[in-house]
Amino acid sequence: MREARLIEVTELDPEVVAVENRLRPVSESGVQSVMASVEALHLLKDEIIVRKVRHQDNRLVLVAGAHRLEACRRTGRKVPAKIYDCSDDWARMMELDDNLAGAELGALDSAVFLAERKRLFEKLHPEMAQGGFRGNQHTGNLVPDIVSFTTSTAEKFGLSERQIHRLVSAGSNLLPAEVATLRSASKPVALKDLAEIGKATDPQERDYIVKMLAGGHVKNAATARRNFAAVSNGEKPVVKDPVEDSFKALLTAWKRAPKAAKRRFVGAAGTELYELVWDPLCDSVDGGDTE
């Protein structure tokens, strides 16, 4: 990988910085968080990283800091920036590390980012990807040429090696279209779900699982896999019933609560409970009295 060279530290009009081929879109909450910080501190805490692409008429392309760039664009501010001359691989690695180190990523984005980081790591260190080792000239013992990807990444981002293995495995199995669909899910996708999707080798099954999970039609990917198997065998799938789930959760909480808590709850929700109990009965009586 060609060594990156810092060209300039400056301020830029956000409109002159191109944003393309990002691994994840900016989130509204992330942009709002940066805007609130800028308003409170009257400055942007960290510069964005930009590359000057020499073979494209020195066009400026964002490397890291999409939320910071968007926040400055919305507030009409110039954005502090470090401009580098660098390779594609350096730019991608910087984007990955900036997000992994600085953003609160969910399981989905963590898996995608770490899988891509592993791909780049092995591209830059093919001797590790192929299991290459060198012998110590004094002892003859075989030792790794460099620290392994899993170990170095775990240390860098404060994760266990087991977590890195699971996230990379899940991210490596996801297609871009599946990632886009899962990002639209009503609730964050869990690592267990990503691992379950990875077990499905049939494209139709994977598509079914992803769509059912993203649409909130099933509780988890394991249920979606069972449903797909049932449908394939001509059986009736298990359909998620939000009302039934809520009822069971309320009933369980009520049974577990001590009497003092139950009294307090009834006192706080008494009016609503009264309406729920008596309104249907009143409607029935009124309906019987009028013809």
- The number of domains is 3
**Most strands sheet:** 4 strands, mixed
Percent of residues in helical segments?
Answer: 55-70%
CATH topology of the largest domain: Conserved hypothetical protein from pyrococcus furiosus pfu- 392566-001, ParB domain
Question: How many strands appear in the DSSP assignment?
Answer: 6
CATH class of the largest domain: Alpha Beta
Main structural class: alpha+beta
Short key terms for the protein model shown above:
6 strands; 291 residues; 58% helix; globular; 13 helices; single chain; four-stranded mixed β-sheet; disordered C terminus
Textual characterization of the structure:
By secondary structure, the chain is of the alpha+beta class. Helices cover 58% and strands 11% of the residues. It contains 13 helices and six strands. The strands form two sheets. A four-stranded mixed β-sheet has the order 1-4-2-3. It has a two-stranded antiparallel ribbon with strand order 5-6. The longest helix is centred in the last third of the chain and has 31 residues, at 259-289. The chain starts with a strand and ends with a helix. 23% of the residues are buried.
